[in-house]
Design a protein that fits this description.
The protein is mostly helical. The protein is 62% helix and 3% strand. A two-stranded antiparallel sheet has the order 1-2. A hairpin with an 8-residue loop joins strand 1 and strand 2. The radius of gyration is 25 Å and the shape is globular.
Length: 282
């Protein structure tokens, strides 16, 4: 005879599958009518010559800049658009979960939402770093026009890729007006407000234990610094989960901020392109 417990588990799994399938269908119907928090970032705006003479003055820099700018514009747009899409998906799942009991919510969170939320919470930091990377490389090539004989292409001027950060981006873009608007916008991405509202999720994901999403408690024991005391204390009680009603608007705000970064990036590239390609005519 077969094991009754095994049969019951099978029936339970089947019911869970039916529940998840029904809720996924509901989610897809809602998603079809969902409106993203901002418009998706555009493509094809870069205006650069298709033909470049490598034996012309700045020919090598023009070719490098054109190809780097094209890839950067596409990659940054894709990254921001992906975050917009993921945020819309999380918000839609939030609507699907209204009125469900804890067990049902947990099934949806585990199957559909947890990984989406983790990806979304890590993305602002990642995209901010990519802006620095792109701007440093592009400004390095554009500086050939500004600095001329003073410009050199070596690792003291632009380090290897792994070492590029905000400091290098600022150093290399100091000759371009567009950088001021871009860095103001970047300073609003993955900033202190975002970190506090997400309980330092990105840092904890890398170095510690992250809070859960919507349900569940983590880090039951915490070692804490007490003001005006030299010895730490151990706190018992755990970290509460990140609730979707806080997480969704926080992610929407980051999407808007990143959209502002992309707009400023576009203007910086236009400024540099005018200087670098002024002597090129298709």
């Amino acid at each position: 005879m077969s094991d009754p417990a095994a049969r019951n588990d099978g029936l339970m799994d089947e019911k869970v599958d039916d529940f998840l399938a029904a809720k996924f269908a509901e989610y897809r119907a809602l998603l079809c009518n969902a409106t993203p928090c901002i418009s998706f970032m555009p493509y094809g705006w870069l205006r650069a010559p298709q033909t470049i003479r490598l034996d012309a003055e700045f020919g090598l820099q023009q070719m490098a800049y054109r190809d780097l700018a094209d890839e950067a514009a596409r990659d940054l747009a894709n990254g921001i658009n992906h975050l917009i899409g993921v945020t819309t998906r999380i918000e839609t799942w939030q609507k699907v979960m209204v009125g469900l009991d804890l067990h049902q919510k947990n099934e949806i969170l585990r199957e559909f939402v947890q990984d989406l939320a983790t990806m979304a919470l890590l993305t602002p930091y990642t995209l901010k770093a990519r802006f620095y990377f792109a701007v440093a490389h592009l400004s390095h090539q554009a500086n050939a026009v500004r600095l001329r004989d003073e410009w050199t292409d070596d690792f003291s001027t632009l380090p290897e890729d792994w070492a590029i950060n905000e400091e290098w981006a600022s150093k290399l873009t100091k000759y371009w007006r567009g950088w001021r608007a871009l860095i103001r916008a970047l300073n609003k991405v993955d900033n202190g407000n975002f970190k506090s509202r997400t309980e330092e999720f990105r840092s904890k994901h890398t170095h510690r234990f992250t809070p859960r999403i919507e349900l569940g408690i983590t880090q039951m024991v915490k070692r804490e610094r007490i003001p005006d005391r030299s010895r730490p204390r151990y706190g018992i009680g755990g970290s509460l989960p990140l609730k979707l009603d806080i997480l969704v608007p926080t992610l929407k705000e980051q999407c808007i901020r990143l959209g502002e970064c992309y707009s400023a990036f576009e203007k910086l590239v236009e400024e540099q392109s005018m200087a670098l390609f002024s002597n090129v005519h298709d």
